[in-house]
Fold these 3 entries.
Entry 1:
Amino acid sequence: MMEQATRAPRGRTGIAASKRTGQVALPRKRPTRILIDELHPVLDCGRYRVKRCVGDSVAVSATIVRDGHDVMRAAVQWRPGEQSRWREAPLARVDAAIDGDRWSGMIDTLDAVGRWRWRVIAWGDRFASWREELSRKIDAGQHGLGSELTEGAMLLEAICARASGEDRELLRRARHAVADDSAPERTRYEAALEPRVAAAAERWQVREDLTASEASEIEVERERARFGAWYELFPRSWGGLPGVRRALGEIAGAGFDVLYLPPIHPIGVANRKGRNDKPVAEPGDPGSPYAIGGIEGGHTAIHPDLGTLEDFDALVADARELDMEIALDYALQCSADHPWLSEHPEWFSHRPDGTLKYAENPPKRYMDIYNFDFECEEWRSLWDALRDVMLFWVEHGVRVFRVDNPHTKPLAFWEWLIASVREVEPDTIFLSEAFTRQAMMAALAKVGFSQSYTYFTWKNASWELRDYVSEIARPPLSDFLRPNFFVNTPDILSEYLQTGGPGAFAVRLLLAGTLSPSYGIYSGFERYEATPRHPGSEEYLDSEKYEVRERSFQGPLLDSVTRLNRIRRERPALQRIDNVAFLPAENDALLAYAKREGGETLIVVANVDPHRAQEGIVVVPGELGLPPVFACSDLLDGARYEWRLGRNYVRLDPASRAGHLLAVENA
Amino acid sequence: MMEQATRAPRGRTGIAASKRTGQVALPRKRPTRILIDELHPVLDCGRYRVKRCVGDSVAVSATIVRDGHDVMRAAVQWRPGEQSRWREAPLARVDAAIDGDRWSGMIDTLDAVGRWRWRVIAWGDRFASWREELSRKIDAGQHGLGSELTEGAMLLEAICARASGEDRELLRRARHAVADDSAPERTRYEAALEPRVAAAAERWQVREDLTASEASEIEVERERARFGAWYELFPRSWGGLPGVRRALGEIAGAGFDVLYLPPIHPIGVANRKGRNDKPVAEPGDPGSPYAIGGIEGGHTAIHPDLGTLEDFDALVADARELDMEIALDYALQCSADHPWLSEHPEWFSHRPDGTLKYAENPPKRYMDIYNFDFECEEWRSLWDALRDVMLFWVEHGVRVFRVDNPHTKPLAFWEWLIASVREVEPDTIFLSEAFTRQAMMAALAKVGFSQSYTYFTWKNASWELRDYVSEIARPPLSDFLRPNFFVNTPDILSEYLQTGGPGAFAVRLLLAGTLSPSYGIYSGFERYEATPRHPGSEEYLDSEKYEVRERSFQGPLLDSVTRLNRIRRERPALQRIDNVAFLPAENDALLAYAKREGGETLIVVANVDPHRAQEGIVVVPGELGLPPVFACSDLLDGARYEWRLGRNYVRLDPASRAGHLLAVENA
């Protein structure tokens, strides 16, 4: 709209002598009077896409401003990326009483995976404006409104021409009555203000000065991207892929949705690490699954000790029968024996003398690992090959990938890879394992990762949990970062678990499973495994990362796990992150929160002190919309309680219970 | 980066049979590893421009994210719109201790009016990264770092080739020493880590992976757009333009910078309003200056009772001699006698019978006013003509316009008009008089208005003032909306002034002049004029809008006004809005705040109760950076006090003082 032009020379008073020099050009066509602004939810000015899942409705809002007093209307429009027809729903002013300029409404519903577009439109309703003005004049006792009535008849004529059916006839008669200057004024007024006429006119209204905002995009993924229970195990400790197949039924029976396997590929021999991360392996040590590649193959091969590709296909098929899916680890690094080191040395970093450079984070050396050089000359063939690795597994039925340390690879690579794979298989889910600074974790989520590990394992005090969950449970983070609250990982045995005993495990399970729609357990948790390699370490002693353990699906916590997973599947309130409201508990050892969805309210109270009984007062505020007194049942043990608005006494003894999971009845 | 493609057909496992079908194209060139995000200050994704004034520095910040551990550097670049050379200043991490990803720095300084562009750049410093890694390895006691040293020598060679002067020689020697494999390792390490070498390398570093954000714009206006004291008068009450000329010296002597005149054009006769807004004028009634236009001319003519165009030019020249400027009222409406109604009927709204439609806000009728129809067929000629009106006055030396009710005209018109006029005369200042909803007030500021009237006249309680000023004193509002705190206007005689007596006037003057860099007085305020037309009205009795009054520049409050204007000119802390910090005062009748600039701190304490003495405790917090005990002098009367961090007793009796304006000494 604005064009640069040269400055005019200065004249007598120091001001430009000729006012016609260098003027800004008029707009080409008459501009709209309507300004649509501050749209939500939009992420980074549209550079990245807001995320939702299939079945979600989206609350949208915008500021809409226009000069003058005419009646304005607005709507939100949305459509799947490849369609041309917009769906539409009305927007309404948020503060209608004060004619507030913030408008809101709902996109209802996003019913397919993929990229959706949405925008806000607004327009003037001349007939409604005219009707409003006439109404005020009549109320003020004014007469002689013949000119106004003539205007109204013209507006009705235009609308009538667009209408059909009964509405057309109604509008035609109204126009005639309004235009009839032989009729008494009162009759004409009544015809003009008739509510059914107003309703019909609204249905067929002319959208004056129709203005549309820019369109924004929403990335819609399948529901599993938001909600699921994950179980992680190392196949080599379970008897390889056949052994995992045999355990599937029990794992599915406990209510898990995703079975995540650390890398299942051949493991390098050179510089293999020994048990407990010793720099040198002893004969028989299996090495780290993350030292990927050997003479048997690389990222598209399966470790011979685990089985064959047919075993893998069978595992995937069996899992599908049980409504579970297999998630693989996508770890972009190579052992010294990976075929690519010899086939494609150009993909790796070299020393000046030409030798390959192993991974380092000085002064640490990872001599069993070689990293890709994403900036190498042959980066195109490298990126293609890495994508093909993922597509290989996609072809073998994998639709969930847990990505190892994405924060040490370029963001642009992930953005391209995720889009590429989704283009082939839109249902693919990507979990980012990046324990790093918040800005990078957020950036990875923005470029496309469906889910993210979080700081959850290190948030153990009640206030830490409350602050952290509050942050990720609301926009902007909740618009693009979906948390996965693993209670432990092969790299993270938190001090809290090391020192807390069974009580700690029980409460962490309850918190993870009720605070986040996606949560996970790394095998061993259900047996209260808690011995670190040495004091102060977060590494497990005799970690499965460096040796084979004997494992099977059993442990004292599994009853609780199974119960919790069943409850989560039954209760939609536990299937989203953004519906949490923390409640005062008047004891720092207690964390209390409500989760609401539809007409359902759950209240969780957890004792984060794993050793001592703690008591407190949970305060239920009025804004939860609950009645003054309400019955609730503890879904963990069936006990029933009567709670009330305001103060409710709670006592939790870790010897018998980690917390309450109360379902409000009939509310 | 992403291209749409068709979905591949599904294969055996339900997944696309051919992974090579419909893939997302690789980026054309190797993408950067650096992501620059969340730039501040940017307004509405760059749709509108952030505002600053000449001489301002701008604090900028951005989130900069990159994979890996290499040393990254960043800078902000800026330039006036028409230049090609960027100026540059470094950015630093906000939380350097934790390697935080938020970077900040300063644009220093915006030294000319016009549109400036700025952006953030970031890059990798390979030498600094290499040096850091080498340093860690040496600290960890590692040996045999010959390969590392070879790499370092290569990096030094590349930098040396770019260097000149002493630096080049220094780098050359360092490269030689590092590369010398006949020298002891220790010697080579020392050469590599020598601080002067590091400094030289930084000066001539290669900017690897240089990445730039999008450029944002800043609209820089002259200082008067932010800071000034305004005085409003109706020329017809002062003896016309010659009379105003005679009063100029006194007005300038009181420290006013801008003299604002309501419309000076011919006034219509038909349907002229009478005194006190009577619908029908009596003979001799002058009518409202806002009913613009008569047989003598329209918006580019001067009312014959006021003088001639020569009188006006002389007024402007005299004002310039006194370092004052004349602000005119730009009121886009016509009386029934305006020449344009007959010359250009196509510019106005018509009834169906073809007659012109006077202004209405049903049921109110403004039969002396006709509004332009900005959507008429001939909108282009209308817009041109309206712009030419403003440029006419610009040619006659006017560079400040107070715009009447812009919220009833299209935003797009203002955006175009302001840009058009600024294109001819960049120093033009536009004040928006729009007492309407916040979204529209903000929109007007965004499309270009330099200043805005605000809700100040209705913010009288201490908490109202604190909340409102806090909102406009910080981003985003402070980035684009500059307030002008008129204490009264011809339309607004607040209840507070009506009932408060002289004490109310004194405290409102103090608040306006210290809270906002731009403030104004409508003549009569200095005489405590406080009689409304009738109880409950905000209109003045016998308002100058509808009759001629006898006025001259005198009144009991003028000493205070003069003193305050002098203090404001001497104290930079009072020349910005965004440097205010409200202090607790422990009495709702007291409002206390600090204003800081450079090393200077002012503390204002005002008693908003105009009738009763009030006492309280002003709490000075540590974060103001003041010493535990400090001397201050009250600029209003010279009295000196000793204040301290923490609690300070204050008592203010409206009979003697409205408040304190303390300047901290030697702090």
Entry 2:
Amino acid sequence: MSKNAKLRLVPLGGLGEVGKNMMAYEYGNNIMLVDAGLMFPENDMLGIDYIIPDYEYLLDKTDRIRGIVITHGHEDHIGAIHHILGSAPVPIFATPLTRGLIEVKLSRHGMLNKADLRTVQAGEKVQIGPFAVEFFHVCHSIPDAVGLGITTPAGLVVHMSDFKFDHTPVDGWPTDYAKLAEFSQRGVDLLLSDSTNAERPGWTPSEMVIGPALRDVFEHAPGRVIIASFASLISRMQQVADTCVITNRKLAFAGTSMVDNAKMARKLGYLSVPDDVLVPIDQALNLPAEEVVLMCTGSQGEPSSIIGRLSTGTNRQFDVHAGDTVVLSSHPIPGNEEPISRTINRLFRRGAEVIYDAIAPVHVSGHASQEEQKLLINLVRPKHFLPIHGELRQLKRHAAMARELGIPAENIVVAENGQVVELSGGELKLAERVPGGYVFVEGGSIGDVDLGIMREREKLARGGIVLIDLSIDKFTNRPLHEPEVITRGFITSEDAGDLIPAIRQRIKELVNGGGLDDEKVIVDAVRSFLYNETKRRPMVFVTMSKA
Amino acid sequence: MSKNAKLRLVPLGGLGEVGKNMMAYEYGNNIMLVDAGLMFPENDMLGIDYIIPDYEYLLDKTDRIRGIVITHGHEDHIGAIHHILGSAPVPIFATPLTRGLIEVKLSRHGMLNKADLRTVQAGEKVQIGPFAVEFFHVCHSIPDAVGLGITTPAGLVVHMSDFKFDHTPVDGWPTDYAKLAEFSQRGVDLLLSDSTNAERPGWTPSEMVIGPALRDVFEHAPGRVIIASFASLISRMQQVADTCVITNRKLAFAGTSMVDNAKMARKLGYLSVPDDVLVPIDQALNLPAEEVVLMCTGSQGEPSSIIGRLSTGTNRQFDVHAGDTVVLSSHPIPGNEEPISRTINRLFRRGAEVIYDAIAPVHVSGHASQEEQKLLINLVRPKHFLPIHGELRQLKRHAAMARELGIPAENIVVAENGQVVELSGGELKLAERVPGGYVFVEGGSIGDVDLGIMREREKLARGGIVLIDLSIDKFTNRPLHEPEVITRGFITSEDAGDLIPAIRQRIKELVNGGGLDDEKVIVDAVRSFLYNETKRRPMVFVTMSKA
């Protein structure tokens, strides 16, 4: 370890979870990326499909990127890979299942044959530029997840992505404690650790508790069981499949991403479902209801998901009805509590029984809680600590915990996305800020929709709009026709019957008052007229032509 | 109790909590209302100030309304009184503090001298039409809250509004268990009970736990302490004031509603703050920081509240800065998790320390949890059960609990707002549905903004708008000027530089193609042009005039 070596860590993204979707390691002229995921839009980001990290910082340095390491196969860690590969066609390192899920994604975007994918097994070591990366197994809610031990010229860094210390995981493969202890003996200069559950006391329950809860539901449900989850929650698929075997039900996956991911996980041996248990969805819909389990997406209340469409009665292939039992088997991503709650109410209204985590343990978190986070810090005994994967409030809490465990305050840094952190000369400190915003993906547009546009949308939605079109005779300055008035999101058509003639009258008074050359005069007059009438402030647009 | 007597219960409101904001009791030609509160808009109901129950059902029956009984002084129980009184000037029955808070509200709307307010003490009985109403004390997060024992010709109904079984409440006055037992002995035909926390196991902690938590914060805070809460959380004001006395800090209330409510509660003897502890806000701002506690609104992350403005640096009277400790002392109303989380992150970003319920017990729920809900049912032993105050998911859970306690399933009814329930001939059953929607209040408009308008607003916000104005020469069918194109919430001004000329070009091609008489043809063409270019779908408006 060289004394003057300077390692730079650059968490990229917006105001969401720090360093979760993408973290750059930079040493001299070498960059290694860890993860390339997407964020889901919050409830009030209308129109947005998804959000990717702002990697403008990397755009003039793509020739320095030596590779991308992916820690596991969830969307928030792999969902932006096809965007990044467009700018930087570099090797991607991942364990077999993670690689398989990346392949599913890339082939959907027609980019599979352009990608340089390299399989790494947990326990292996790979040299990526100046970074010697040791992959070690961690438990999470997907198999084949890894943490990273990164030996750099500035010291040894342990990068814990999403993890929990589950002693009885679904695949029987606990977190590699021995490797963590070994790093500790070597001396860890910097630990990065998952802060998601830093506000949650105790120890996250093992995935094992879900099995009996599912069994209880499957055995007592009078008809079909419909499980809502994420398409990449492979461990949950396994538990559902196992419970189908025990309770003599057939399992069908619904939805492209769920079907594709399950197929890939089965092919690679990470998901074991007997051939006679797995049936296609159209076959399942023709079986007696009490013999069927359907597994689909929509656990976040997304209106366009299968569960979302079932709850509003707009799903094409099948409906939900009395006798069905819907199980929401995943956690609300922060900000989704409200749409999820609406979905639960709607499903009840359609006569279904709905089971969710407040009723039975059909979900557990995939992230370490406070006692596990503390155990990790004491296992690794790092010199410096950088909390990642969480919003500022969780990072602050995680940092406070590290201080309580004896890590000196000056060795702990809390940084948000876009804030460069440097490890150099035995010190961890804040360096400069780089662009670290949201890149909104909407339709075919990547980054074309910015925060300014989002603010305009909110303004449109707060008050609605009033459009006025006016043609004026250039000789007489009189209206050539009745002013045309269109409103949206402002008044009902009944109220429009009274208000629109009044608006027209007001405009005619103005025009007849004479000397009217300016659209802005009309905008202002209509605005204040509408405010007086309704005490509301729609956006007003006037187009005026003279002929 | 007459055998053919028919009591009708009509919960009024939208898809929110059932019967919380207003419940009508109807017997023959007599109506009694319980509570008249408002709802806060959800995060995606843009522009809405607040929501009141849809009482269209009552409008042609106002002469039958014998009175309004108010159970306690929180906004969701008193906030719509001034609207109701406008339609039905009937007597209002309330305990002294509740009446005081209603007076504060009515005088703000200039309606105090028009209202017929009647004070009732807990323990008293009042005859309201055919309803003999016994008021009895319950614990909640505000003093002077009551439950109701309502003797009707169809039987005895116990109406539990918001309550908890706190054994050590702030005012030392526990729930009146003896009265509940007495009702039980008389025989309760129907129990209505608060379902808010039906998904929460165990027993809600006593308000008492907050005192030591606040003391710990006040003693260790290096500078000012800023407490965020609701303006009507009078019990919390008392706890903050008590802790100020112990820790030698001065207390100032900020914000009109907080100041007015505190003044009224002090005047009536429900809030005890020594004169030398309470100081005006401008005086507090000039004292040494470590001697000051400010209490204000904004615990729900509302952008226009004091805490909301502090978090964005837009508060006029004072700022938040390093050294300040902000305490969020209230629960997130469902749907507010996201704005609250953003507010916490912003306050941290400004350098403040932020304390909230995940960090220290600075808040407890004011509502009974499952064990208390069960105790109530077993204390009262009602023949029939109607869960209220909760969304459908909580009502379903509460009903399941009542079944587990031995109430026959056929004696339990789950009804949403607008669903009439009848108690008659010893049976509880569903009757007809009446209008039960949301009435949105926005600016000066009450009910003018409806769900159709809300849907239009969402559509505006999802894709933004493109406005096109076109004048065509009526003889040559050629454009008289360049088509005017305005966009909002769709593209940035940089992108507009490329796209708008392309839109103009597309329109000119269409017009020159000839025979163009219809705005709709242009709308469709521009829509599909924009979809091809951007894969997005803004709302397109065209105004065309011929001259």
Entry 3:
Amino acid sequence: MPLRVVPLGGLGEIGMNSMLFDDGESALLIDAGLMFPDDTMLGVDFVIPDFGVLREAAARLAGLLLTHGHEDHIGAAAYLLKEYDIPVYGTPLTLGLLRHRLEEYDLDGAARLVTIERAGRFRLGSFDVEAFPVCHSIPDGVGYILRCGDGVFVHTGDFKIDPRPPDGVPTAVTRLARLASEEKVTALFSDSTNVEREGYSLPEAFVGEALSEIFEGAPGRVIVAMFSSNIHRIQGVLSAAARHGRRVALCGRSMVRNVATALSLGCMRLPRPDILLPVEEAEALPDRKVVVLTTGSQGEPRSALTLMALGEHKHIRVREGDTAVLSSKFIPGNERAIASVINHLFLAGAEVLHEKISEVHVSGHASREELKIMIGMVKPDHFIPVHGDPRFLIRHRNLAREMGVPHAEVALNGDILEFADGKMSRAGKLAVGRFFVDGKGVGDVESFVLKDRYQLSQVGMVMVVLALSSTTGEILYGPDIVTRGVLTENGSEASIEGAREIVVRTWEDSGVEARKDPAEIQTDIRRALRRYFNKRLERKPVILPVVLEL
Amino acid sequence: MPLRVVPLGGLGEIGMNSMLFDDGESALLIDAGLMFPDDTMLGVDFVIPDFGVLREAAARLAGLLLTHGHEDHIGAAAYLLKEYDIPVYGTPLTLGLLRHRLEEYDLDGAARLVTIERAGRFRLGSFDVEAFPVCHSIPDGVGYILRCGDGVFVHTGDFKIDPRPPDGVPTAVTRLARLASEEKVTALFSDSTNVEREGYSLPEAFVGEALSEIFEGAPGRVIVAMFSSNIHRIQGVLSAAARHGRRVALCGRSMVRNVATALSLGCMRLPRPDILLPVEEAEALPDRKVVVLTTGSQGEPRSALTLMALGEHKHIRVREGDTAVLSSKFIPGNERAIASVINHLFLAGAEVLHEKISEVHVSGHASREELKIMIGMVKPDHFIPVHGDPRFLIRHRNLAREMGVPHAEVALNGDILEFADGKMSRAGKLAVGRFFVDGKGVGDVESFVLKDRYQLSQVGMVMVVLALSSTTGEILYGPDIVTRGVLTENGSEASIEGAREIVVRTWEDSGVEARKDPAEIQTDIRRALRRYFNKRLERKPVILPVVLEL
């Protein structure tokens, strides 16, 4: 049987990365990530791939290989493991972060987590798996070389090529160059996230230096907001703070937890034993001795940074003389929330630095020139861009074609790619889907429910209760009218009274027979009220009439 | 009496620009704009200032001065004119665009529109009003010099300093420099929109040249999307198309209407009489002879551009060989919608150019160096930044202070600034508000309603109807359960059945007396169902129980 490669998520979207490799004897997954909901997914916590498509391959499913510890690569693993009891392979930090997630689902005891080296090589069913280190915005990242009867396959995971990485372990260019010289690489699957950025990404060390300058020059406290998974950058903050005689107070649950995990795994070290400062003691120190390191860089409304800016945080209130640094990307969709927190920081008197005006953030993904290095180094016969919106995949494919890769193709979620004798062909499409996770429900919130939620959010609802006698058709009770999200309490009495009259008139106008048919009179009431609200207010609330027959 | 200046909108936000000047004898407004809703304003069409605060000044309200024809400067004029019958002063194009709006409210007949020259000077009550031309992303823009007993005041409107403006009329630097040399300017109110951008804004001519190159080189059709009010740029498209032997098909209602208005007012001219191409004939021409000029640059889901990308437009379907150009800003909040339309354009086979990767858009607002020119030229004694988020106003104030303006201050909406004998003081705050416009309702959708809509959008609703005998407390009907936005139709039967049982059990558990009190049993049902859904689904739908007593 040929090798089948099927992206379950992440090809045609940002997040929810997961890719199946199945040679008919064994199958494995690279990553099981989640996607954060966009603003059309009302009330949805997050989105995961539909792992139900793996059922057919369940018996030969040999394991899950993780590339790194970001949510869009590990965040759906708990849902995968609930259905399939398979071992999970990852580096220490990746598994450490996964463990936090599994604890939330009470799965930490049952899961079989296998720690691998960043350059480890091991057997997984019929596959020879070789990890190789990659630099990214979280430590301990890897890509994978998979070898099976049908060829040699390289998956980069998320990567950049940083010449001076904070942990001293560069992306494995030497290993990949040697691979290409010794073996023919059948296909390369490479990270497309930053294909639209020209040139090279900046090294992480730039940010450390920029922060160091800020810590030196700032007249008072410096409040740095970032993602708590960016362990390298947290290390950079600690080192820079130590250099300039500042101590660091950690804010935000995940910040405190991830620092503890990274320290216990040796992924981070304290430059001075007393560098960390309990947040409740921050006010006791002179302002120039304090750095506050917090989550909330995306302007999340209840995050520590927002509360600090609004003066509602328990320990830290932003004031004149503070410098706030957003050391993170403005993630598309969050711009308004981020702008809002920046405005509040300014209004509270702080100076604010962020990636648009200062070098306080660098990306963890390869820019165009680095993508070219990867393609040029691996010299694959086939090229499949991974991770990103369709336009990124198309641009990345075009780049590979320009570089002379013989077969560069775009695949989207569900596309079945077959590799046999070093040749790729397309074998149709797997009906991959996605599940919306809302509370305990997985997949029961569908487009149907979201459509209702959307409609309710735009127009509100009007509920009518009317009880009729089943014998005479006379009104026994009502009409009772309840609205939500249509009218204010004050000044809406006239509108409600008018609606009540409309219902009574509809009842009067209907024949005696119709009055005995709740379904028919419900339809009439709905139609009449729709007309009424549209004419009176130019609004079209959801109308829910309940006509009882007694 | 001193002159009172009060911003009614636009100071502390983007949009809804309106500023009151009131010297006790006469009062006038500069602009009456709307704001587009952000994603927290569910179902809101747009937002306008609360002009109710003008009631006290109504008798001396002498007129509305418009700076230019963008919605955030003229879009609330219809609502102002409904309440106050005052004359409106504006240049020909500004009034032409206002007329479109007034027609929609059946106000076009009644309104007193007074056409002014771009460098006109006239009396308005106790004020001497002098308009001066400014360059912006719409033609026919002006700023105003207001003179009254309390001083000389300059309001820039929205402006940039373009050395080679498309209509040949530069921002009135000579006039303003002469003003400063002849008279002492008491206060300058200046556009803060782009204070975060270093250097100079690029001239509009750059875009014309970039488009010309694209029209020359593109292998097939070119589809250009932009705001239909950007008359200069539309002119640029027509001229560039004529130069390269292409004809231009207009798509989108406002595009067709604004071109007609601009042509009739002489703000635009056709480079060739046959340059415009009926859109239904576009397919008959060779692809290299066609430009499609359309709205939809913000990724609006039902716009012409989106329909073209999805293959759902009546006349134009995007295909391999097309080049799409988004000649506009990525407005914050719209990034995801814009990314979505770009993805669909790519998937349909088009090449896509936009401001992030190509010089196909320039801003209509002054960058930092131009803002410095304005301040340096006008040499005001006081400086009040206008138009923008708090952080822009604060940065712009800091810039003025660095430049040595004696009194630079931030004012926010409602702040009362008093000028007497050339001195400014603060005289408290006017309770300015904003009205959400939703259909015909103005101001009846308040935070209360939006909170309900938000809650419904996140969690949906569960409605329960139960009829009890008023004498025995026995159940005569129900419980009937209707949900919206909580559960799907399929697979939710068990949840609904469970909810029904909970209601019956609640009824059973309540004492005989409670059964006769609908309010009490309603509360019990709400509480029980809230617990039930939270436990079963970790969701908290809005629960609306109706208990009838018969």
